[in-house]
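> forwarded from #structure-qc
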């Protein structure tokens, strides 16, 4: 995709529906969305999208959906995700995004809790997977499937047979800006998810605040691969892009992300640390097989590039080594950037902390990575690092118009128009989250620099208190350990214990190499328990955590051969680990690590 940056034409609107209405009027023939269809990339303009939305609206109205009715969207990122969402917004309906990898029992609970009347799904296979819970979906009036030939019983209809006629007029009747626009269920790490109620004003004000930090243009191209069910991707990758007329290209799948980056050549991207960690791991694994000269060249390119970044930020003086930067960039940096499409102006990373060494590598190679921070309950962005004042060890400065302060126990509190209306059907949880003065309690422990940059130091609920009273935030250690080539996932534990231990899910390929070097079968479940295997993993963990205080060192570990995924209930749909569930699953293993102590 060969496009050049044009002038910035960001628009302001009171509601999400007005945001689309104004955009489609302002640049009707502009490129809006790109999707892989029938073995090729297909492009859609804003006017084509408007026509599609109108057909969705006609069918929704025909099914008797009235203002305020809830519409669930359960499909991967694609053109009809936007069409369904915007059709609902224009009719004053409320969208409820659902992760495609959620468990059937949880989906049933969400649909019932929200009182969903219409549900969009992607495939017949998804509907078949819901067979065990269909009896609990009596309130559903209609299930619309994007796959051809899906029509049949159970009120399910194939989308092309269900949609209204092509000459249907588009409607924009969203109601007041403070009207409920969406219910986003948080992928909580404990208990049932809570439905976050976000108004049009909540989300639109967050978009407008973010645009005062970042310059996004009509001819930018955004590659979308985080689920649109995630508030971060939805607000910043979708609604913000719409405000600026930026084209949004939908990634086919995570396994095809590397290929799509090269084909789409995006200029912007929203990501989470796990993506960068995986790329970092592949780069370091490959580097380990290269000659000593290539390793030194790569390290020099990263170091000089990082120092250049610090110089441009005004934090480091000019160095003579910068004269070699163009050559180093030609030999190293440009090749790595080419793997990401070669045109990235910047990428915003959020959802969890990005390890400093990961940020250093990418920034040093000329890939501007800026961290942001927020919660679903804040629509979601609270803070971000602007490109001209980027401190990668922090999550940035509060967005304009967003108040923050540090409360008791160093907890970050925030107040703004972006703060949610409350939790759906849960006034008690709302009262616990938002105090009488309107301050939302994030649950995150922070420190703030004199210039206002925020650094997350841990979660209040996750702080481990050892038997000797030392308080340890496990996140920093887990971020350090997971960068090791042997480690895919890690959970540091030790509440009330004399020392810290770790549960580790190994990288399958690296684990196989370790097992074979010890003449063990990597497929044998007992190999994880082998003392020599554990000893090798302990050496790697100790190397990764060598700079931590003595009380924050891992003394024992266990290697487990089951990945923690949303499917087995050990991780949320956004891949955050569920500490409580993991500890319950491995309670016996955890106790053995403390036997005799």
């Amino acid at each position: 995709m060969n496009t050049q940056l044009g002038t910035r034409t960001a628009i302001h609107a009171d509601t999400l529906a007005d945001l689309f209405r104004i955009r489609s009027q302002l640049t009707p023939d502009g490129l809006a969305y790109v999707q892989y269809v029938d073995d090729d990339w297909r492009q859609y303009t804003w006017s084509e999208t408007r026509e599609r939305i109108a057909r969705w609206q006609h069918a929704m109205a025909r099914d008797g959906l009235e203002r305020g009715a809830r519409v669930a969207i359960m499909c991967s990122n694609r053109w009809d995700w936007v069409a369904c969402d915007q059709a609902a917004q224009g009719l004053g309906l409320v969208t409820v995004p659902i992760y495609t990898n959620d468990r059937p029992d949880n989906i049933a609970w969400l649909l019932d809790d929200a009182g969903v009347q219409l549900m969009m799904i992607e495939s017949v296979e998804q509907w078949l997977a819901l067979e065990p819970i269909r009896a609990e979906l009596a309130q559903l009036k209609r299930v619309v499937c994007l796959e051809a030939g899906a029509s049949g019983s159970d009120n399910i209809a194939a989308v092309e047979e269900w949609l209204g006629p092509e000459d249907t007029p588009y409607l924009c009747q969203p109601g007041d800006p403070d009207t409920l626009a969406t219910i986003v269920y948080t992928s909580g790490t404990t208990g049932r998810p809570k439905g976050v109620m976000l108004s049009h004003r909540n989300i639109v004000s967050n978009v407008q605040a973010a645009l005062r930090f970042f310059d996004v243009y009509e001819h930018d191209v955004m590659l979308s691969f985080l689920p649109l069910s995630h508030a971060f991707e939805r607000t910043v990758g979708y609604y913000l892009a719409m405000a600026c007329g930026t084209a949004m290209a939908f990634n086919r799948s995570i396994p095809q992300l590397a290929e799509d980056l090269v084909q789409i050549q995006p200029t912007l991207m929203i990501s989470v640390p796990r993506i960068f960690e995986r790329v970092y791991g592949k780069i370091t694994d490959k580097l380990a097989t290269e000659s000593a000269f290539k390793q030194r060249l790569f390290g020099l390119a990263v170091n000089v590039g990082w120092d250049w970044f610090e110089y441009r930020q005004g934090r480091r003086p000019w160095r003579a080594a910068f004269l070699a930067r163009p050559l180093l960039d030609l030999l190293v940096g440009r090749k790595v950037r080419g793997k990401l499409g070669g045109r990235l102006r910047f990428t915003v990373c959020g959802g969890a902390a990005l390890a400093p060494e990961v940020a250093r590598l990418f920034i040093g190679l000329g890939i501007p990575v800026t961290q942001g921070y927020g919660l679903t309950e804040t629509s979601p962005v609270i803070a971000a690092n602007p490109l001209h004042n980027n401190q990668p060890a922090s999550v940035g400065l509060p967005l304009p118009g967003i108040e923050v302060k540090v409360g008791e126990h160093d907890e970050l509190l925030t107040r703004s128009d972006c703060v949610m209306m409350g939790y759906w059907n849960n006034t008690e949880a709302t009262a616990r989250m938002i105090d009488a003065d309107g301050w939302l309690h994030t649950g995150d422990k922070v420190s703030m620099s004199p210039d206002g940059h925020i650094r997350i130091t841990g979660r209040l609920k996750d702080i481990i208190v050892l038997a000797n009273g030392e308080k340890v935030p496990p996140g920093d250690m887990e971020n350090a350990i997971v960068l090791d080539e042997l480690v895919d996932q890690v959970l540091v534990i030790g509440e009330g214990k004399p020392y810290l231990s770790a549960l580790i899910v190994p990288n399958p390929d690296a684990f196989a190499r370790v097992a074979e070097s010890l003449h063990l079968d990597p497929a044998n479940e007992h190999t994880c328990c082998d003392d020599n295997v554990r000893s090798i993993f302990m050496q790697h963990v100790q190397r990764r955590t060598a700079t931590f205080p003595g009380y924050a060192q891992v003394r024992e570990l266990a290697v487990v051969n089951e990945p923690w995924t949303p499917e087995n209930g050990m991780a949320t749909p956004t891949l955050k680990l569920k500490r409580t569930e993991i500890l319950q699953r491995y309670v016996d293993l955890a106790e053995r690590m403390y036997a005799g102590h």
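QC bot note: Residues 13-27+41-175 form a domain with the Rossmann fold fold (CATH 3.40.50.12780). The two ends are 61 Å apart (CA to CA).
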